[in-house]
Specification:
InterPro entries: NAD(P)-bd_dom_sf, SDR_fam. Keywords: Oxidoreductase. This is SDR family NAD(P)-dependent oxidoreductase. With 236 residues, the protein is of the alpha/beta class. It has a single domain (7-229), classed as NAD(P)-binding Rossmann-like Domain (Rossmann fold), CATH 3.40.50. It is built from 6 helices and 9 strands; from the N terminus they run βαββαβαβαββαβαβ. The protein has helices at residues 16-27, 57-71, 94-122, 145-165, 190-194, 205-216, and strands at 7-11, 31-36, 47-51, 76-79, 125-130, 170-177, 180-181, 203-204, 225-228. The strands form 2 sheets. It has a 7-stranded parallel β-sheet, with helices on both faces. The N and C termini lie far apart (53 Å). The model has no long low-confidence stretch (mean pLDDT 94).
């Protein structure tokens, strides 16, 4: 088994930004470990798919174990899996809270622990987490307390990881998107959602992919929360 090619793990990889990330990393000749609940097997021998609920510790263990068994290393982890439930704060149920925290927090915590443990063995690595611009710039009419509670935690954890592992050759960064054209948003909502951004339109999935690829190729950047949000976080 050759272990010279870089290996990236992408969570939430079955559709949308996650699927675009898989394609983009393959074009750069990375070997890719793609995981999601509904991810399908790939005919590409350089793509390993692992189906499972990323909020479960057992899924994280299986992803990392199979990644090492197949490819021998992990260079980059992209914590892309996430869910957004827009409700008034007092309307959130215990089930909403459990569902959002399971994916957004558990889905970050367990697999990041295991990936960094592997990165430490090689003295290098990179963790990129997908956050949200809403953490820094809440929008009237877009209730987002659970998103801010969980994704805001990822922003803070990103900075902590960056400092804790800086001298060990492991970087941590995050991308904080605005509202992106993806399967999450029906086309008839695009005009209204676009108007929420100072630039007047939604972002493309390629904008987030390009941001992740930039961070992965920038060895002097760590602890950065990169806003890709059409100016939202700057103001209105």
């Amino acid at each position: 088994m050759s272990t010279s090619q870089k290996v990236v793990v992408v969570t939430g990889a079955s559709q949308g930004i996650g699927a675009e990330l898989v394609n983009a990393f393959r074009k750069l000749d990375y070997r890719v470990v793609a995981t999601a609940r509904s991810v399908k097997p790939s005919e590409d021998p350089n793509i390993l798919t692992v189906a499972g609920d990323i909020g479960e510790p057992a899924t994280a263990q299986r992803v990392i174990r199979e990644a090492i068994a197949r490819f021998g290393r992990i260079d980059t982890l992209v914590n892309n899996a996430g869910i957004f439930v827009a409700k008034p704060f007092t309307s959130y149920t215990a089930e909403d809270y459990a569902k959002v925290t399971a994916v957004n927090l558990n889905g970050f915590f367990f697999i990041t622990q295991l990936a960094i443990a592997e990165m430490e063995k090689h003295g290098s690595g990179h963790v990129v987490s997908i956050s949200t611009s809403l953490v820094d710039h809440a929008i009237d009419g877009v209730p987002s307390v659970l998103a801010s509670l969980t994704k805001g935690g990822l922003n803070a954890a990103t900075k902590s990881l960056a400092i804790e592992y800086a001298k060990k050759g492991i970087r941590a960064n995050a991308v904080a998107p605005g509202i992106i054209k993806s399967p999450m948003h029906a086309e008839e909502t695009h005009a209204a959602l676009g108007a929420l951004h100072p630039v007047g339109h939604m972002g493309e999935m390629s904008d987030i992919v390009n941001a992740v690829l930039f961070l992965d190729s920038a060895p002097f950047v760590t602890g950065e929360i990169l806003h890709v949000d059409g100016g939202q976080s700057a103001g209105h």
